[in-house]
Each structure stands twice: as C-alpha cells, then as structure tokens.
What does this fold into?
Amino acid sequence: MYNIIISGVGGQGILSIAFVIDQAALAEGLYFLQSEVHGMSQRGGAVESHLRLSETEIFSPLIPQGEADLILSVEPLEALRYFSFLKPEGTVISSRTPYVNIPDYPPLEEVFREIKKVRESWLIEAGQLAKQAGSLRAENMVVLGAASRYLPLHEDNLKKFIRVLFQSKGEKVVETNLKAFDLGRQAAESQA
Amino acid sequence: MEKVVLLGDEAVALGAIHSGLTAAYSYPGTPASEIMEFLIRQSAGGKNFVAKWCVNEKVAMEEALGVSFAGQRAMVSFKHVGLNVAADPFINAAITGANGGLVIVTADDPGFHSSQNEQDNRFYADFARVLCFEPSSHQEAYDQTREAFDLSEKLGLPVMIRLVTRLAHSRAPVEVREPRGKNQGFKYGYGPDWTLLPANARRRYGDLLQKQKDLQAYAEQCRFNQFFPPEPGQRLGVVATGLAASYFREVANRLETRPAFLKISTYPFPQKKLLELIEQVDEILVMEEGYPFLERFIRGVAGLPGKVIKGKMDGTLPASGELKPEIVARGLGLPVRNGVSLGDFKLPARPPQLCPGCPHADTFKALNEALQGYERGNVFSDIGCYTLGALPPYRAIQSCVCMGASVSMAKGGAEAGVYPSVAVIGDSTFAHSGITPLLDAVYSQTDMTVVILDNSTVAMTGAQPSLGTGEPLDKMLVGLGVSPEHIRVITPLPRNHQLNVGLIQEELAYHGLSVVIARRECIQILGNK
It folds into this structure.
C-alpha cells in the first residue's frame, strides 16, 4: 500500500494531479482508491485528495491518520495541514510558492522550517519553474514531476496521462505541462 | 469485463444508464451533483436518454414519477436535504407504486462538508416503506443501482439508494456489465392506482403493507448482505453498514482473531442474519454512517439480555460527524498511529471564500453601507456561494436555513416589526423556492426588500444552468405582481458602488415590497468562456 495526500488551495489543480496518478496506476494494473473534495471548499479554501495505491484490494477511501507515505502539496502551508496523516518516515514534496488569501498567513520561513523538520522533505520552486515552462497554472505538474521518482509508477505512464489530460486544450498546453513535469523532476533530482 | 474509473456518483449514473434509463432529473447539490453531470455528458444532448437539471427536487421527483407511470425507467438524484423538498411526492410514490423502474438516489453528507445538517435519509426509506440500498464501494454503487432498477419493477415500488460524501466523491475502477435497452412497454391512462383518493389510497397502502414481507424476504437473501462467523474464541460481533463496513475491513486484519461480521447493504435489514450474529457473540458493535439508525433497532427499549451493545449511543463511536478509519480502529480498541506533530506551530484555517472579482462581494459592500444607520434591520439569506457573506470581511447576512427561506423569513420578520427586513437570495435559489414566498409577500404587500443576486448560474455546485436569470427573471417578477417601479437592477462593480448604495437606500426607505436585482455574471463561468 502506498498512501499519498495531495494538497493545495481550491483551483490549484489538485484533481489534475490525482487524475494522472489514477490513470497511470490503472495502466500498471494497480488497485487505487482516491477521495476528493467538491463543492464549497473549492472556493479558495484548503483542498485535499487522499490517493491510495496497492497491489491488493483497498477498502477505505480515507488514509488513516499517521499512514501517509507522501504529502504532495502545491502550496507550502497546505502541506503542513496534513502532517497528522504523515508517517514519521514519510516524504513531503511541496511547492515553495505561497498562495496568500488569508490575513494570518504565517511568515514563510516558519512554514519552510516546519516542513524541513521532516527528514525526507523537498521544497520546489514550483511557481518559477511553471513560469519557465510557459504557464503559472502548471505549478501542479511541476510538483508532480518532483514527486515522480517516489511514486511506484513509471514516468512514461505519468507523462502519457498528462498528455491525455490536456490534449483537448491543444498541443501547446500539453507541451507546457510536460515541460513543467520535467523541470520539477530535474529540480528534485538536483536537490537529492 | 471492462474497467472504468468512476466517482461513486458516476458509478450510480452509469449503473442507471446500463439499466435502460429513459429519463433522469435532478437539482444541483453537493455531494450529488456529479451524478447528473455525468448523465448529461453521456446523454448526447438527449439522444440516448433524457438527463435534465430541474427547477427543484420536488419537480424532479414528480417528473420521474410521470416517466415511471408511462412504463419507462427513471432516476432522480439529489443531496440529502433535497429529499426534504421532494418528500411529498416521494412518500406518495410508495403508495401509487412504480410502473417503469423508479430509483431515488440520496447523497447524504455526514460531517457537514457542504450542508446545513447531516440528516440520515435511511429514515425516509423506512418512513415511506420502500427498500433502500447502501453501497459500501464503487463496484457496489454500480451493481446495486442495476439491482435497484430490477427490483423496482419486480416489486412495483420505488427503490432508494443512499450514498455518503466519501463514496460519492471518491474514484476507483469499476467493472461494468452488458447494458440493456429501454423498456419497450408503454402505458397511459392507468388511473385507479395512481389517483390517491382516500378509497384508492387505502387500498394501495394496504398493498404496500402486504409487500413489506417481500422486501424483508429480499433482504434475507440479498447477496450484498453478508455474514461471516467469528473465529474461535472471539466473542465480538461487528454489524456495519455501507461505507462503515469498508472502514471495518480496512482495519480488521489488525485484530488478532476475527470478530463475527455482518455487512449490511439493504433496508429493511436481514433480520435472520442479524440474529445469527447475535447468537454467536457477547458483544455487538454497530457501525454506520449518519444516525444510529440500525443501532436503535438492535437496542430496542430493553437491550439484549446478556449482551453488550456498542455504537454511537453509548459513546464508543462519536454521535456526530463522519466515520474515519482511525475512528473505527479506536472503536475496536486498536491503537492509532501518530502522524508528524506540528508542535507549537499555529496553523491558520483557510476557509472557503468568495472568489476575487466575485459580484456578490460588491453587492455585500453596497448593502452593508446602505444599511448603516438602521438599528433594527435584518438580512435574511439563503443557500449558495453568497452564504459566505456571513464571514468576514463582509458579515453581511444573518441567516441561512434552507432553499428559499430568505424570502419567507424576511416576510415573517417584517410582520414581527423588523425594519428594514431584507432577503438576499441567488437567482437559481429564487427559482427553486423563492417564487412562492414572494407571491405571498406581494399578496400581503409586505414592507421588505428582496435582493436577488443574479449571477446567471448555480455557482457553488459547479456552474449548472439557472432557471431564473436575466430578462425572464425580470418578467417573472412583474408577473408575480411586484410593482415595476420597485423592481430595480444594479450592476455590482466597484465603480458603481456609490450609485448602488444610493439605489438600495431608496428601496430600503420605501415602505412596501421591492426587489433589487444585482446582475453580473459569475466570475467562474466568465473565466471558462
């Protein structure tokens, strides 16, 4: 069983990350069960998706407390929100780029310091890399790229379904998102 | 068999399509909206079957009943509180009975994720005396929907399916079976069973009571209700329904010896299987999402002699909120793993809020300013994105109860002496349930101001079409008898602020009924164009 929490703020493309991982898991013959948030919270609030991958049948759509292997966050403060789910030996991969839409957003250095208390934690310049790839909206794919070497899935499959996800929006959007994925992956590798 | 990745909601929708659906009706509401969203996408503009958003749940239920009377298969779906709106035709549909398969899907919201309550609609099925399925997985959501259509036609009764948020809004692969075509039979003019004059109704209710034994017999042999005896030496029995059964399965392998386990997926529930479990154990733990519906039956008044019954009523499980795997683990006495602690770090909440550029924000700012100086006023509001106007920085509204209630409460408030008495309601909510109370206010010439936030969509649930927007809305107001001089339209934009404040002040000062329409398209649908 491999348990992932994907987190961020409504509108940051959490469900797009989930779609790519789900489809890649299906292509690789794994079981998966993925919960998501619709409705009120999507309006600029905290959103999360619990995504579970396994070689055997999965029953609970929710990850039990203390049993997440990976927190994959498109926003640094939102990574912290789910620490009670993280195994002490688990991994955090988060964007460094804050989404400030609340008056009491803590100083960013404090947020980073908390994230770095987890031994396996990586902060990625997702905003900057997304821009470099061609669109600020591709932060989610940067973070997915950075996390890809931890996922029990083949990189080719992830990329295949990024293509599937964005193909209706045209080749340029597909290329931007694939580039964002690659830049994220390279950034994580250069830190490792 | 083919595997398809589906939300729980979509598994129900696909199950209905594969059952030979003729028509489906709904009103948007979290966590049920994705059922109709999926159906509309699959309907090919109505070529394959009818899939429509309706003005409200009552209308949806009645339209579905019309389809069923014609011998065709119909489904309605809505969030749990939607069934309150549709309760009248729902209860009576059990008495008229169904002709073509008629399935009612309720998506309950334990934990109040997006709702004003966490009512448990299994009580409605019991109340109406119809059979209810409660799937524990995506596969069962698909399979039980297909079963529900078969059973509805076999029993001649509507059948209900109860989902909960975590099943409705999670995604997994589902194996699908061969679809079947629509019903070929067509009926019309079959009156005596459908005309609930007292004499007919008594006879039909008698028929419904007679059928209860068939429902019970079905529950006893239904493949979705499963009993597993305990391992030797284990004196605990777990009775778990729907998704609770899946949470139990998640943690059960951590127990040293397996308890007896009864998984329940139908109501009426399988009494014989339950008695079989009770005989083999000393302690019974009941797990269910929502209210302690089953637990109350099992406890009765006197309990079970010599047995300990645990669940939500004795505090073993929390009385409110949704179940979670760690809650179920604790209920079984299993330890829960600790995650990573944040220590002293104070994590601020990030509640949902109006989008940047939202027209409601400009309306609230203008309304707040217009109301300055009044001490005994009240702003009654309603269900939608604009309910977020209760939160800072706006703090512009003082109520949210149920669809359309703003208008009725403003009238009641005005009659009790509240002035200004203001109702704030969205365009779709107005069409849903605001028209009838406004007619009441016209008739009484109530001194109140209704602000209709016309953003031309059902925004909160994902931009479904609104049935009461734009020019038709203006005409509707005139048609209802609101004086045309007191139907005012503003464009909520920062640059119009002073103008809008002045106009609202005029209508607040007017001692009669006025309607201010704040008209600007939702920023979300604008962005999607």
